[in-house]
Design brief:
It is a single chain. By secondary structure, this protein is α+β, with helices and mostly antiparallel strands. The chain has two domains: 173 residues, no CATH class; 195 residues, no CATH class. Helices cover 50% and strands 21% of the residues. It has a six-stranded mixed beta barrel, surrounded by four helices.
Length: 390
């Protein structure tokens, strides 16, 4: 009874017990609306942010942070260029690569492939592909061995495993009187990797740098250099500095350019979801207004009595303001706690709900929610606190 009259009466109206439960019911509905809106907002945005962050980390575990390549043809005298690139501030490591497209065949099975010629020891410093081998080892990729490492989905579609032989067909061939003959070479599958990303597992293959150079007749040239930097968000700045330093004879790109459309689509999707969920909360807020109007109508007799006892008009207004604030804050707090708990335990709740209803809400091939996290590269682990660690 030591509380101010408007505050005491407003709290009392939110839990009315006498006569009927009409006021309590409509107050509970208003709180429930705010709770569901805030819960959905926190949960959905948390899932989308975590999905984008994890997907970005997985992409950068295969793709390079910064790429230096020739504008035309092959990049010659790359050892000197490699030394210049490594001396750039922020660059942790660099590795040469040769990139080609072709077909890989095994019997009647044919699949398109993006094959990359690499130096295994250097590739381990800029990529995690060779760290995720299900079979074989990185040391099996030796110069002249004509070994190949396939993605798990690609190997499954071809029906091959370690020790099997496949044929790699490169589009660059020789012109003969019979026409253009593509270059073909038999490779031995020395290993299979799995990155838990269908795009890479189904279309990427690794061979030794020297073998790729012989197949594509690159001689002493390479396609370019793949760089790993200490701060992935500094990639645009570092690529700009390298472009000015190396001149116009080479092209310097980075992951924000090569995957710009993909991440822009994710940002747009997240903004749209935020607007939709915000409108849900707005509707719930309007519901509070309608609730207060109904309460005022229901409490006209009480208001008359309070005015007769000397309560000022502002005091009467304060009663219903207190009730609206309690409903809003109550729903927000409960929804916030529920949303945080849901987001923290999403990897447990999603499989449970899917098993309960027999529906796959988040396909494992698209949404990275369930499963082991991809470990970060040693170089990436040394980045700044703005990095991608979950």
């Amino acid at each position: 009874m030591n509380l101010p009259v408007p505050f005491f009466v407003g709290l009392r109206y939110t839990r009315a017990r006498r006569r009927n439960h009409f006021v309590s019911f409509i107050s509970a509905i208003s709180i429930l609306g705010i709770t569901v809106g805030v819960w959905a907002l926190i949960t959905v945005l948390s899932v989308m942010n975590g999905f984008e962050r994890e997907l970005r980390g997985r992409i950068l575990s295969v793709a390079s942070h910064v790429t230096v390549s020739a504008r035309q043809g092959w990049l010659l005298e790359w050892p000197l260029l490699n030394e210049a690139v490594r001396s750039q501030s922020g660059v942790l490591d660099a590795a040469p690569y040769i990139l080609g497209q072709g077909l890989v065949t095994r019997g009647n099975a044919v699949s398109g492939v993006l094959f990359r010629g690499v130096e295994p020891e250097l590739e381990l410093q800029v990529s995690e592909v060779l760290s995720h081998l299900k079979s074989g080892s990185a040391g099996d990729l030796k110069s002249g061995s004509w070994n190949i490492v396939l993605g798990s989905q690609l190997a499954r579609s071809l029906g091959v495993g370690a020790g099997d032989r496949v044929t790699l067909i490169a589009p660059k061939g020789k012109i003969t009187p019979a026409g253009l003959l593509p270059r073909m070479k038999r490779f031995t599958v020395s290993g299979v990797f799995e990155m838990d990303m269908y795009e890479y597992d189904s279309s990427l293959a690794l061979v030794h740098l020297d073998d790729a150079a012989k197949l594509l007749e690159a001689d002493a040239g390479i396609s370019g250099l793949r760089l790993v930097i200490d701060d992935v968000y500094a990639a645009p700045l570092i690529s700009t500095q390298l472009q000015k330093r190396l001149g116009s004879s080479v092209r310097v790109s980075n992951w924000t350019i090569e995957h710009a459309n993909f991440f822009s689509a994710l940002k747009i999707e997240r903004r749209v979801m935020f607007v939709i969920l915000f409108l849900i909360i707005t509707v719930a807020a309007f519901n509070i207004v309608s609730t207060l109007v109904m309460v005022v109508t229901d409490k006209r007799a009480d208001v008359a009595i309070l005015r007769t006892l000397g309560l000022a008009p502002l005091g009467v207004m304060g009663i219903f303001i207190v009730q609206g604030v309690v409903i809003g804050f109550g729903g927000t707090i409960v929804g916030g706690i529920t949303g945080v708990l849901t987001a923290i335990n999403i990897e447990t709740l999603v499989p449970w709900v899917e098993n309960l209803f027999g529906i796959e809400f988040f396909p494992a091939s698209v949404y990275v929610i369930v499963g082991h996290a991809v470990p970060r590269m040693a170089g990436v682990a040394r980045r700044s606190s703005r990095g991608l660690a979950l």
